[in-house]
Structures are given as structure tokens and as C-alpha cells.
Amino acid sequence: MGEEPTAGTTGRRGRLAAASALLVAGGASTAALAWVLGWPAGIALAARWTGLAGLVVHAIRRRSLTTWILVSMALGAEVGYDWPAVGVSMRLLSLIFIRMIKTIIAPLLFGTLVVGIAGHSSLRQVGRMGIKALVYFELVTTLALLIGLAAINLTQAGVGVQPPADLHRADVQAVRQTASDVILHAFPENVAKSVAEGQVLQIVVFSILFAIALSLVPEPRRRVMLSLAEGLSETMFKFTNLVMLFAPVGVGAAIAYTVGHMGLGILVNLAKLLATLYLALFAFLLLVLLPVALVARVPLRRFVSAIAEPVSIAFATTSSEAALPLAMERMEQLGVPRQTVAFVMPTGYSFNLDGSTLYLALASIFVAQAAAIPLTFGQQLMIVFTLMITSKGVAGVPRATLVILLGTAASFGLPEWPILAILGIDELMDMARTSVNVIGNCLATVVVARWEGEFPPKA
Question: Is residue 114 one of the residues assigned to a domain?
Fold first, then answer.
């Protein structure tokens, strides 16, 4: 049992909280004044670091992983801005963090899916849940595509863009995806290869088939494998908790690298496109995901609290996979049954990338606008429906949205230079769309669980 707080300890905690709040407010106010009044660089630097010191004191007071992640993002941005070379060199720390997370994904998915399906009393219910999940995914991603299409047509962000003199070449090649390619991509030819390449959808398909086969094995032998899978999944959740202790360092390093190698001046270029994307993503959250959450009677405060850490990690690292293990754990803690989390969330990483699909619709029309190629509404819809198919086909491929965008441009005779021009701000756009991907998949697990009558969990 914990020690009851005395009046003295309560008073000390209150004074510490008040002091940290004053330090944060004072530092932030000083930094703002330095920027508005144009103080000398040295004074402005001191003001910013005073504000950051207040944030650190606040984080020490809170002892919350979410708080430390947010504070580390602010510290990383400042380091990258003040000392760009140091920020760029910190990329190693962020890559270590992402690699540690990726080692968790395959064994965690395998263990949780096998337990959720083979240990389930009814395979028919699992199949029904899968159909419901796919229907939900297609409906929501279609709305995301349409919102992206509407946003870029309203702002006309691509009109008047001139080809930059110096274009960075893309580090990936365009891939044209047919319907048969998309379907074939879902099935692994070698599960070890799928694990090595991080092909989440192929790992999910293998795990589902393995679990169905295991459910047909006689009970004594099935119990042995189920116990092994249960132990594996529990161990990987503990592994996730250990890796998350490194999260503030990895997240701060990722932000420091982004600011250090890009600088803040990049925000001036193509600012209209960046603003269009952020506003469109906000509209999608407000007009689609929020009504879905309200209709499904999702406890919003608890849900927002549960997704805060995974979304922060996704934003800083621009990697949906980096947030996957923690997101699965948080949804289970929220009350979503493990078998639902294990099935819906990994599947959503291939079929429910809301932020990425919205971006693809927006960016593809931006390319046409920049190249002064007029497209009828019918042609735009054709591009959107093509993206509905091809966006499912390269899950797990590095820079997947860039691959799809280049392939779509090639398919419709659009030039490549506008895509290369937006590479400069691609990471800033990737932060937002990846965060929305994680929010959408977390919400999908709760919605499907509610649809199945399993949220809140049965007593």
C-alpha cells in the first residue's frame, strides 16, 4: 500500500507544481517577447532555453511518458534549430529506436493473432469481424480521398508553381500496380522474407492461416502451441514497455534531425500545399472520425489519453510501424479485447491508412495543377478510385506514399517534377498524415469491438 500524503507533502507538491508552471509560463512569455520585439540572438536563445528548462521541470514533476515525449520534441526542435550539425548527427538515435520497435512487430502480431483466433470459441465470429473491419476501412478511406480531393480543388495550391532549378531525385522508383499485383502482394512466398522486409499484411495473412490450422489440431497439442503463443505475446508487450523507456530520446532525436537538415526556411516554400494538407487532415478528423466516435459511443477522454503516446511517436518518427506495438497495448488497456486489437489494427495498417490516402488524393491533383494540366471531375474521380486500389498494394515499402504517387503520375501521364519539388517538405507532411493513420486505426479497433458488442468488455 502507498503512503498517505500528509499536509506537508501535499503542500510541497503544490508549491513544486506552481513553481514549474510559473517557470514554463515565464519562459514561454519571454521567448515570445524576444521573437516579437526582435531581441538580439543571444537574448532570444537564452529566452527559448529558459522556457525549455521550465518544460523539463514540469516533466520531472509529472513523471509521465507522454509529457517526456512532448518535452523531448520541443528540445529536439530547439537543438536542430540552434545547432543543425548536432541535430543531423542525432539521427542515429532515432534510427536505433525505430529498429528496436520494428523487431517487436512480427512476433507480437504472430503471438496475438494466434491466441486471438485459435483460442477463440467461434471462427465464424472471427470471419464476421474481418468483414466488418474491411467494410469500415473502405468507407472511411473513401471519405478521406474525397476530402483530399475537395481540399486541393478549393485552395488550388498547385496553380502557379514553377519548376525549381535544382530538384532532388527520388530515391525510389515508380511502381504501377494492377489489381492482381495488389492481391498477390498480400500472400507471402517466404514468411522469413516477409518478416525481414517488414511486410505487415503478409505477416498477418500467414498468422491468420496458421491460427486457423492450429484450431483444427486436437486439443492436447493445440494447448501447447497456444501456451507458447500466449507467452510470446506477453513477452513482446513487456519488451515494448522496455523500448518505450528510450522513446523520449528517439523522438527528440528524430525532431532534431528533421529541423537540423531541413531548417525552418523550407516552410516558406510550398507553404500553401502544406497548409492545405494540415487543414484537410483536421477536417477529416472533425467531419469523419469524430462523428464516427460519437456514433460508436467511444469514451473520448479516455480514448484521447490512450492514443497520446502512440500518436506522438508516429508524429516525430514519421513511422506508423513505430507506434504499432504501443498502440495495440493502449487499446487493450482501454478495454478492446485482445483478439479484436490483434486482428483489426495490423490489418488496418494496409487497408486503413486514412492520412496517407487523403494525402495521395491531394498530392496527385497538386501535380496536375502545377503542370497546368486541366482535369475534369470525372478524370479526378478516376485517379481517386485508382488510388483506392494501389494504396493497398505497397504496405511496408519504405516511402510507400511516394512510390504510389510516382506510379499514379506515370499511369495518368502526369509529369514527375512536381512530385520531386514537394520532397523538400515531405517529412513535414509525413508527420501529420502518419499521426492520422494511427488515430484512424486506433479508432477502428474500438468501433469494430463496439460493433461486435465487446466494448466495453463483457464481465
Answer: no
Provide the strand spans (E) within 184-296. none
Please write the tens of the pLDDT for every residue from 60-102: 877 777 778 778 878 888 888 888 888 888 888 888 888 888 8
Q: What pTM did the predictor assign?
A: 0.73
Chain position carrying cell 510507400: 400
Q: Note whether residue 9 is domain-resident.
A: no
Mean pLDDT for the chain overall: 78
Same domain assignment for residues 41 and 149: no
> Where residue 363 sits, what CATH number does that domain have?
1.10.3860.10
Contact (CB, 8 A) for 346 and 133 = no
**Nearest to residue 389, comparing CAs of 202, 131, 185, 149?**
185
Q: Are 407 and 293 in contact (CB under 8 A)?
A: no
Tens-place pLDDT, residues 257-297: 877 776 655 455 467 888 899 999 999 999 999 999 999 99
As to burial, measured by CB atoms within 10 angstroms (0-12 exposed, 13-18 middle, 19+ buried), residue 95 is middle
Residue pair 226/233 in contact by the 8 Å Cβ criterion: no
| Distance of alpha carbon 251 from alpha carbon 398, whole angstroms | 19
Report which of 66, 68, 53 is spatially closest to residue 22, judged by C-alpha positions.
53
335: phi > 0 → left, psi -120 to 50 → alpha, else beta; which?
Answer: left
438: number of Cβ within 10 Å: 29
Residue 425, C-beta contacts closer than 8 angstroms, at least 6 positions apart: 266, 267, 269, 270, 273, 274
C-alpha pair distances (Å), 227 with each of 114, 220, 224, 291, 339: 10, 11, 5, 40, 15
CA distance 60 to 71: 10
Number of domains in the chain: 2
* Interacting residues of 5 by C-beta distance below 8 A, sequence separation 6+: 13
Q: Assess if residue 221 is contained within a domain.
A: no
Domain containing 333 equals 124-200+269-451
Same domain, 316 and 438: yes
Q: Which amino acid is located at 324 in the chain?
A: L
